[in-house]
Amino acid sequence: MSKYKIFIGVLLLLPGILFAQADPFLPPTPVAVGQGGAFTANAEGMNAFFYNPAGFARDGEFTLLSVTPWAFMDKSLLDFLMQELNLSSEQDEPAGSVSRQLDPETLAQFGIDDEAIAGLEEVANWGGGLTPEQQEAAINSVVTDETVKKNLEESGVDVESLKTLIEDPETTQEQLSEALGGVVIAVISNPEILDSTLTAASAGAESAGGPKLPEETIDKVASTLDPASNPKIPSGNLRAGAQVALGYVGHGFGLGAFVTADAQFRGKNIFGTKGRILNTVTLAAGLAFPIGPITLGAQVRPTFMGYSNVNPSSMINTLLAGGEPDLQALIGDVYTGFRIGVDVGALWDIGPFTLGAAIKDILPFKLQQATKYTGEEYISLLTAGELPLNTGAPVTADELYDVPPFKLNVGASFHPDLGALSVLFDPRISVDVRDLIGIIRAGNDDAYLDPTVWDFLNIGAEVKILRFASFRAGMYDGYLTAGVGAHLLFLDINAAVAISEPREVDGSLQFKNIGFTLETAIRF
Fold this sequence. Notes:
The protein is of the alpha+beta class and 524 residues long. It is 30% helix and 36% strand.
């Protein structure tokens, strides 16, 4: 493989990683999402486990089986994935075959037009054309510039490893090309950081007699791959997962079991997205009881947790290049452990109004018996029916993901009593402020990635028709949502869709992100 191909490949395959903390016990169920996720004061049924255990005191229901998948992503990415599925069904070659290159129209959907490709090629040709001494000088200039070094560390680049690499006399040119390409792609979603990084690298190469990277090339790459100036670039916000559950809720008691897989990623664009895959097995048991007009509730959630810090942008970029992604390389070490979550909540009924409050993970239980496995080891244990717990390699405290404790949610709902008319038409309006402590923490904790007011404020409404059909609408995590539900004998079907961030592309208004969540349940 030539040094040019090495550098281009690395540009497309090595984004940096930084991870957002997520609540592993808050799936986007369609009943809640459809009405904007404003469910703290409305808590009832299976959703009381996720939002407010005081809801256990409401009418009872037994769920024999509930299956809920969900996905939220940039519409451009969804269109691309749908095209991938169509291509794979129409061709003899497997999807992602190296010999199948995507056509320019598909690449253009992602804002990767001729100008963007030309800019990337110019950077790749410049970096790949440097001698080993010039590449070392370029990397050394980057890691010794304090401002650039800080930006790289915040973008997930291991600066110390770069220093070790250039000091090792046995380092190959291929390794240097990979390292330099990794530096560039780690900051490619941030134009300001990209500019300073490439400028420092260019100055370093020049000091060793190498060519200067033209400023117009730096500007070209930064502008064409910046979502602010190129609306076709997909955002790096992506979530997908599923949950299988069963349980009983009602008359002051709640008991449930949940198996969940949830992948959440954030990034300014798809080339620099980063995130974590969580999978959990949870048992939950709780009680609720009234004290005058106030109902109090609490639950305990022993949970097995497995998670991995992953880099989906590498797979996405490989698909964009027409290649076949390495799924095993996508998943790094898998960390496992056991923890107990404790939640408390309250509901206060005041005529047609209800006020609700809940604290999730009120006690800061750390992950216990934590060990780590390779992705292959983890999957092998699961397929063999074994629980991968406390049998892997030891981990240090700074490697562990801690579930954010003391998440205080408050909400209110208005549910007018329409008397006999409520059989035909039964409306409810609600609002939530989620994770009040997180609003403060967001300003001080780097683990929270660029939060906005919509990350904490949820608004929604629901109308039940003839007591078997429901129509919902709201605002959920910045998404405009709409949902429907129907209960037919023992079958419950609930669905919700979400759209967000309208943008102008090619003269027309399009929604940037789109999502869905669907529940099918056998419920009595």
